[in-house]
Specification:
The chain is mostly beta strands. 6% of the residues lie in helices and 24% in strands. Belongs to the E.coli NlpD/Haemophilus LppB family.
């Protein structure tokens, strides 16, 4: 399943840094500056153990309901670059509320895996590739849709945005691209044969960004995901009918 994914680079506040997308396994370690929620955790407990305030962690992760944490969810527990944190109660006397170092932009980390309720805002997408949908979203075993066609079929940006990940560092996804569209939405494009854009590059809707392939896959397919506030939602609901 695609559960937790990549959150790289120091992001703007409401973004929870390049949120994360994907992972075939939810047990992979998170990067420095992040914490994976465990059973029995509360926001106040996480804040205390990381010497932060609950309000800072809620703000960095855009948590609308700080009391609703999910096991496996990955939270930023160190301030994004350029932001200021309000240190919470720290262990021991003389603590200055120091924080952990934020994850470096080169190290992918992961984020929440559970589907969310209907987004408060919407995004207008186009189909990222021509082909046949051979796997649909179910929110559990499939966190996106799979589109199959011949190797080399163009893959395009489903919406305008900025490339926040381009590489093959996430096991099970082959050559992967992640595009951030705004503070709430991002899309991911996996198993590509070739990538034509780089991290930090701005792309327009419909721009060719890759070619369909079979890297880390047993067939030629584009695995396409849509994430809202770091969690997977059904991309077919935001795509035009065919």
């Amino acid at each position: 399943m695609l559960g937790t994914t990549i959150r790289r680079l120091a992001c703007v506040p409401v973004t929870a840094v390049l949120v994360t997308m994907l992972a075939a396994c939810g047990s992979a370690p998170v990067g420095p500056g992040y914490y994976r929620v465990e059973r029995g955790d509360t926001l106040s407990k996480i804040a205390r153990s990381n010497r932060q305030s609950t309000s800072s962690i809620a703000r960095w992760n855009n948590l609308s309901n700080p009391d609703s944490l999910e096991v496996g969810q990955v939270l930023r527990v160190a301030p994004p670059a350029g932001s200021v944190s309000t240190a919470g109660s720290a262990r021991g006397s003389g603590s200055t509320g120091s924080t952990r170092t934020p994850a470096p932009s080169s190290a992918p980390t992961e984020t929440a895996d559970a589907p969310v309720s209907a987004p408060a805002t919407s995004i207008s997408l186009i189909w990222p590739a021509n082909g046949t949908v051979v796997r649909t979203f179910d929110g559990k075993n499939s966190k996106g849709i799979d589109i199959t066609n011949t190797a080399g079929t163009p893959v395009v940006a489903a919406a305008a945005g900025s490339v926040v990940y381009a590489g093959n560092g996430l096991r099970g996804y082959g050559n992967l691209l992640i595009i951030k569209h705004n503070s709430e939405y991002l899309t991911a494009y996996a198993h590509n044969r070739a990538l034509f854009v780089k991290e930090g590059q701005a792309v327009t809707q419909g721009q060719k960004i890759a070619e369909m392939g079979d890297t880390d896959s047993d067939r030629v397919v584009l695995h396409f995901e849509l994430r809202y506030q770091g969690r997977s939602i059904d991309p077919s609901r935001a795509l035009p009918p065919r």
